[in-house]
Design brief:
single chain; 371 residues; Quinone Oxidoreductase, Chain A, domain 1; Rossmann fold; 2 domains; six-stranded mixed β-sheet; ADH_Zn_CS; zinc; Alcohol dehydrogenase GroES domain protein; NAD
Length: 371
């Protein structure tokens, strides 16, 4: 049994509260991690606002983490004490049909992500006194130490900075893959990215690296537009309406081969304008998380069919974390993919609420807690 300070959420609409949590020692298939860094991802904010209802409280949030292995349980073979790892909210069991077919981002163990107990054996391994504590996506990386399933960690090069290893485990991989894998951006394409947070600017970079000729970045926050231009966007606009006329002019009416929706919260009324930027035979990728209750979307079905357009959902950039994380870190080490530049400010664990206030106000591109 070990103790760890952690940032807990006790219910929607509340601030994070720092508490000391008691954590089991690792059992079969589990690893104990000293957390070194964790990104302030908007997905955790979805849990706090209630857009993504959680089944169990209190809950340790944080899922974009990296750390050092302290101890491993029986049967663990992929890592050992001293190894550096990135955490993956997408587990990879390696045994289900989806993992075996190369689609580990849809691993069947994903059904356990919001269970109260451990993914390995179902037991409650985190407590405050007699109160069970859940972990967001079975990770709970807003903590000094954390107990995880081996299937939720990916070994990384120890020379990679902790914040980089953390960010690549979710936001960077998701945005980059949205452009490269799901939108299938090709050299010479015109691409629009809607929303320029951590996922959006990573989609901009993915489109740039894939060879897009024009990358239209759209966000109401001027600071984020400036960062997108610095990271590869060719044009930036404050709104879809503003972007539409210029895109139409620059493409001679053809519009974009692909549009990537990476806004903070996906709403029904945003889909049709995104499709309006999508050209004939084009692809509109929806990566942004919508409120759980958002059961309908406004779409002109006639134009969807007649223009041969596609709408594609995207989870984790439609790629296996065990493939994506080392690949993206290789691009970072080669100087091709910019990740250090994404982090506007770092915070202590006690400043987690300040970090999310800065994110909501548009004062940072990405923030990270460092331990």
């Amino acid at each position: 049994m070990v103790s760890s300070r952690a940032a807990l959420l006790y219910g929607p609409g509340q601030d994070f509260k720092i508490e000391t949590v008691e954590i089991d020692a690792p059992r079969a298939g589990e690893v104990l991690i000293d957390v070194r860094a964790c990104g302030l991802c908007h997905s955790d904010e979805h849990a706090r606002t209630g857009d993504m209802p959680m089944p169990h409280y209190p809950m340790i949030c944080g899922h974009e983490g990296a750390g050092e292995v302290v101890e491993v349980g029986p049967g663990v073979t992929s890592v050992r004490p001293g190894d550096h790892v990135a955490m993956s909210f997408v587990p990879s069991c390696g045994n289900c049909a989806l993992c075996r077919s190369g689609r580990a981002f849809l691993c069947d163990d994903g059904r356990k992500l919001f269970d109260l107990g451990m993914m390995t054996d179902g037991r409650v391994a985190h407590r405050i006194g007699d109160t069970p504590v859940a972990r967001y996506t079975q990770l709970g990386a807003f903590a000094e130490r954390q107990l995880l399933a081996e299937t939720s960690v990916v070994k990384v090069d120890p020379s990679v900075p902790w914040t980089v290893a953390a960010l690549v485990s979710c936001g960077v991989a998701t945005g980059f893959g949205s452009a490269v894998n799901r939108a299938e951006v090709k050299p010479g394409d015109s691409v629009a990215v809607l929303g320029l947070g951590g996922i959006g600017v990573s989609a901009v970079q993915g489109a740039r690296i894939a060879g897009a000729r024009r990358i239209f970045a759209v966000d109401p926050v001027e600071f984020k537009r400036e960062q997108a231009l610095r990271l590869g966007a060719t044009h930036a606009f404050a709104s879809i309406d503003e972007a539409a006329d210029e895109i139409r002019r620059l493409t001679h009416g053809a519009m974009c081969e692909s549009v990537i929706c990476a806004v903070s919260v996906m709403r029904s009324e945003l889909l049709e304008p995104a499709l309006g930027l999508t050209g004939k035979d084009g692809t509109c990728v929806v990566t942004a998380v919508a409120p759980f209750q958002q059961a309908q979307a406004d779409v002109n079905l006639f134009m969807l069919a007649m223009a041969n357009k596609q709408i594609r959902g995207c989870l984790y950039g439609s790629q296996s974390p065990r493939v994506a994380i080392p690949k993206l870190l290789g691009l970072y080490q080669a100087g091709i993919l910019k990740i250090d530049e994404l982090v506007t400010r770092t915070y202590t664990l006690d400043q987690v609420n300040d970090g999310y206030a800065d994110l909501e106000a548009g004062r940072i591109l990405r923030g990270a807690i460092v331990f």
